Amino acid sequence: MTGASEQPVGPEVPGWSPRPFPEPVTLTGRYAELRPLSSADYAELYAATCGPDDGSRWTYLPAVMPKDLPALWMLMASRLEADPATYALVGEDGRVAGTFALCSVDPVNGSIELGWVLLGASLSRTRAATEAFHLVMAHAFDDLGYRRLEWKCDSLNEPSRRAAARLGFSYEGTFRQHRVVKGRNRDSAWFSITDAEWPALRARNEAWLDPANFDADGGQRTPLVPASAG
């Protein structure tokens, strides 16, 4: 499409209006529940993510692993102040074992980020974790009407990069010298999903999460692959 001066411009976005700011809500699936993070969740979150073998879970986060429960309390209180739509992730055992947030909210342009992801060992590589991400993705696109969902991580964080690709995010590039985190340079890898891509990803996720896709021990029968590869 061209403008009056024959310069190329982007397509119109019919009926567009700024999106609502995300409010903390409870999102419930078959295997996981997301609920607004509160101080009542801190003890379980601390137990799940701050043990002697959990240091690597904090390597790429912009915070050091809390040394005790009061330290986690203070950290999460500041997280809630910065990003009110921060969730406690409840796994199949009914315990809080992780957290993440909707952040970098841009209601005017319809862009939002799924960030500050922290999962305990009991959630790593589980259907509960995948469903939790699916629930918040559906909330961002279907309930709130956002056009773009972002995932950003340290470019050296290979597990996060793999998770983004598995969930259907497309790699957009690396922002060099994007931040200084814990006194070290961070180049940030950026990924996104757009509202045009979401329907195919929604259908793919729902098919994978169907109980028929899992054996009696909860093992997947068919793996989750990007929609374009399916």
Structural features, described:
The protein is α+β, with helices and mostly antiparallel strands. It is 27% helix and 27% strand. It has an 8-stranded mixed β-sheet with strand order 1-2-3-4-5-6-8-7, sandwiched between helices. Strand 1 and strand 2 form a beta hairpin.
**Helix-strand pattern, N to C?**
EEHHEEEHEHEEH
Give the distance, in angstroms, between the N- and C-terminal Cα atoms. 32 Å
Q: What is the radius of gyration computed over CA atoms, rounded to a whole number of angstroms?
A: 18 Å
**Segments where pLDDT lies below 50 for 5+ residues?**
none
Q: What profile does the largest beta sheet have? A: 8 strands, mixed
| Count of beta strands | 8
Percent of residues in helices: 25-40%
Quaternary status: single chain
Condensed summary:
Helices cover about 25% and strands about 25% of the residues. By secondary structure, it is an alpha+beta fold.
Describe the protein's topology:
Layout: E1 27-28, E2 33-36, H1 42-49, H2 69-82, E3 86-90, E4 96-106, E5 111-119, H3 127-143, E6 148-154, H4 158-167, E7 170-181, E8 184-194, H5 198-209
Parallel strand pairs: 5-6
Antiparallel strand pairs: 1-2, 2-3, 3-4, 4-5, 6-8, 7-8
Helix pairs in contact: 3-5
